[in-house]
Structures are given as C-alpha cells and as structure tokens.
Amino acid sequence: MTFGDAVSVCFSKYATFAGRATRPEYWWFFLFGTIVSVITTVIDSAAGLQWDDSAYGPVSALGSLLVLLPTLAVGSRRLHDTGRTGWWQLLFLLPCIGPIILIVLFCQAGERRPNKYGDGAAAY
C-alpha cells in the first residue's frame, strides 16, 4: 500500500470503525496526519494566528479536526487486525506508558487468519 492509497482508503472509510487495517495503512495515515499538523502549524505561525503563547491557531484546529475521526477509525481497525477491540485506544489517556503500549500494539503483525473483526488483511 502506498502513501496515497492509505490516505484515500482512510478518508473513504472516514468513520468506519469495523473491519481491519494493515500496518502500512495505519502508519502511512499517521504520517499524513503528522504532515497536516506541521503544515497547519506553520501556516498559523506565518500568518500570526497563534492563540496566546502557543504555536497553534485556527488553521491547526481545523486540520486536527479534519484528521481526528479517520485517525481514530484506522486505529480501531488496526487494533482489530491484531485481534483486539478498538477501545484499547483509550490507553492513550494513561500518561507516559499508555502511548508506548499503543505503539507496540500498532506495530504488531496482524492475524493472518480471519478473526471476529473480519478476514485477514492482504499485506503484512
């Protein structure tokens, strides 16, 4: 799966929390979200639109809202591919250790056989 394919799939499944997502699909979309964040922050800074002393402003907020739901959806589908429920994403709320655990889970290979979330994904 290429960068463009992953972005296209994730936006076509904008709020689809069912099914499975491969590692490349998840990580390419993660990269897309990071690029959007950097670009919108630069636009806010260059235009002087920051809120108080932060680098963030209205353009950054809109960019974040644009990718929030598809990021949660692809994260849920990625966890489904490893045989876990999407609710594991709530680990992100645990300071320090939660995001580390999620990174490990997102990096794990998916189950090659069908599981309760769908058939095995094509590429690993």
Q: What is the element string, with H for helices and E for strands?
A: HHHH
Number of helices: 4
| Tally of discrete structural domains | 1
Taking the sheet with the most strands, its summary is:
none
Structural class: mainly alpha
**Assembly type:** single chain
Task: Give the overall silhouette.
Answer: elongated
How helix-rich are the residues, as a percent range? 55-70%
Strand fraction: under 5%
| Rg, alpha carbons | 16 Å
What is the terminal separation in angstroms?
10 Å
Overall average residue pLDDT: 92
Protein name: DUF805 domain-containing protein
Transmembrane segments: 26-43, 55-75, 87-107
Keywords: Membrane, Transmembrane, Transmembrane helix
Pfam families: DUF805
Name the descriptors.
124 residues; elongated; mainly alpha
